[in-house]
Write a structure and sequence with these properties.
single chain; 92 residues; mainly alpha; 3 helices; elongated
Length: 92
C-alpha cells in the first residue's frame, strides 16, 4: 500500500469515526443539544440528512439505516479530502 492510499484510508476512517461518535452521543443523550449543532455540521456535513429523513428515523431500524448512510457518506467525503491532499503532496 502506497503512502497516498494509506493517507486516504486514514482520512476515511476518521470520517467514519466522527459519524459514529456523533450517532453514539445522540443516541445515548436522548436529546439533541442545539449548541452542538454547528460542530456536528462542520465535522459531519451529511448529518444534515437527518432533517429530510426525520420521519424514517422515528423507528429504530430507520435510525440505524439513515445513520449508516450518513457514516458512509462522511467517510467518502473525508476520503475525498485525503485524496486531494495526497494529490497535492504528490505533485510537489
Amino acid at each position: 500500500m502506497t503512502k497516498e492510499w494509506k493517507l486516504i484510508a486514514v482520512f476515511a476512517a476518521v470520517g467514519l469515526l466522527i459519524a459514529v461518535s456523533i450517532f453514539l452521543y445522540i443516541s445515548r443523550a436522548n436529546y439533541f443539544d442545539e449548541t452542538l449543532f454547528t460542530p456536528f455540521v462542520i465535522f459531519c456535513p451529511p448529518s444534515l440528512l437527518c432533517f429530510p429523513f426525520s420521519e424514517v428515523m422515528k423507528h429504530k431500524s430507520g435510525l440505524y439505516i439513515i445513520w449508516s448512510l450518513i457514516g458512509f457518506l462522511n467517510s467518502g467525503l473525508y476520503a475525498l479530502v485525503g485524496a486531494t491532499i495526497a494529490g497535492l503532496r504528490k505533485s510537489n
